[in-house]
Amino acid sequence: MKICCIGAGYVGGPTMAMIAKQCPNISVHVVDLNSERIAAWNSDELPIYEPGLQEVVEEARGRNLEFSTNVDQAIAEADMIFISVNTPTKTYGIGAGRAANLEFIEKCARQIAKVATGHTIVVEKSTLPVRTAEAVKRILSSVNTDATFDVLSNPEFLAEGTAVDDLNDPDRVLIGGESETAIEALVEVYAHWVPREKILTTNLWSSELSKLTANAFLAQRVSSINAISALCEATGADVDEVARAIGTDSRIGPKFLKASVGFGGSCFQKDILNLVYLCEHFGLAEVAAYWEQVVTMNDYQKARFARNIVRTMFNTVSDKQIAMLGWAFKKDTNDTRESAAIYVARDLLREHARLFVYDPRVKREQIVADLEYAMKPLGQPLSQEDRRLIDSNLTVCNDAHAATDNSHAIAVMTEWDEFKTLDFKRVFQSMHQPAFVFDGRNILDRGELTAIGFEVHSIGKA
Ligand SMILES: NC(=O)c1ccc[n+]([C@@H]2O[C@H](COP(=O)([O-])OP(=O)(O)OC[C@H]3O[C@@H](n4cnc5c(N)ncnc54)[C@H](O)[C@@H]3O)[C@@H](O)[C@H]2O)c1
Description:
Helices cover 45% and strands 14% of the residues. By secondary structure, the protein is of the alpha/beta class. The strands form three sheets. Strands 3-2-1-4-5-6 form a six-stranded parallel beta sheet, sandwiched between helices. A six-stranded parallel beta sheet has the order 11-10-9-12-13-14, sandwiched between helices. α1 (12-22) packs across α3 (53-60), α5 (103-115) runs parallel beside α6 and α13 (340-350) crosses α14. The protein starts with a strand and ends with a strand. The relative contact order is 0.09. Nicotinamide-adenine-dinucleotide (NAD) is lined by residues 6-12, 31-34, 37, 71, 84-87, 104, 107-108, 126-127, 156, 158, 160, 266-267. The site of nicotinamide-adenine-dinucleotide has 27 residues, from α5.
């Protein structure tokens, strides 16, 4: 059997590497238009950072796992094609800022229609609005060749930072489709290592909607505990204690109850906005408003964090050095998409702070690109003032001490383990006094830092 995957990103790369590792009898060819990304997949510095991924890739690469830019060849040879391209929020036209941009999906479907041969199973791996499979099927069936197709939905539930473990031992695999034979063919692939009772099959539309719903529920928990964090700060309750107290209720459960500066990542916001857009499309205004509030609360939490920093530091951060520890949207990934750090940095730059940023896995070019994107009004160029602020007030550092030395405050933006074990006595001595710490992830020991002399501000603690 030959599998092709279009899109060698955070999902396509690790997912296909795991299939190739677990199924040595299946040949897996991952293709992408981005030749730099493909070159990195073929090197010993993979384009994405995930613990354990290098080993999985190295085990299968050159045996039954191939990365290339030969899109047409891989499509023509495949029995099964996964579409794993990006589906970002539209930035223009109808549905701008809400709907998913399906341009890349449609281009893939048209390319498959043009070059596929024989019978091919097309699998939607990307997260898509409900009923996208209908459009994919129509495009595929419009060809004048002998090629025939089945379309399946197989959304991915991995979390970045734990992708390898999630793929190795998933809570479930979800496959939606109409053809029993096609569904069984994909079940057979996963059954190489996933117990059959964990492989759920549904109709196409339930599968597409389940992915959006899962992300909406997960993000809702974060926004719910973050909403309570603001109330904790006002009342003297401690949000970590509240989370522990409610999480022991088996109906609620302990996971995803960690208060923070806000959720990030490429998926939560995009998928909720996509859900909101779908609800509006079907005339369900109240349902749309209900889910949109999850994103509104997240924006509030990020803005509130930046405002707290300014207010606490005597209502001005102008010309003050703020060490931002972490830029990725969570630990153990180099992905920065929608990271809370970007929006906090934007707000602080506009208050004329001097930002010294350190992240163990994110490079300067990415940080600058993220800020440019966040500071640009939708569809318009960066203002001269914002350009000046990025050029003159942003320093990207190679280690944490380079960021904290001489600073007025530290803002913990990502929960990287190495931040917990910094030599805080040394850090304190090198800082201006009073030395402020704003712990956006509640990972530092407040008691210890306070004893050293820091003024510590955490999320959801008075
Ligand atoms: N990142 C996650 O944690 C995650 C988890 C579950 C689901 N998803 C979903 O999976 C999908 C992919 O996400 P990602 O994070 O891997 O995106 P990504 O941006 O990292 O990767 C997508 C890749 O597709 C390539 N591409 C786009 N159009 C192409 C075309 N026509 N031909 C060949 N290559 C093409 C791009 O060059 C890019 O490398 C999205 O729908 C996302 O919502 C992501």
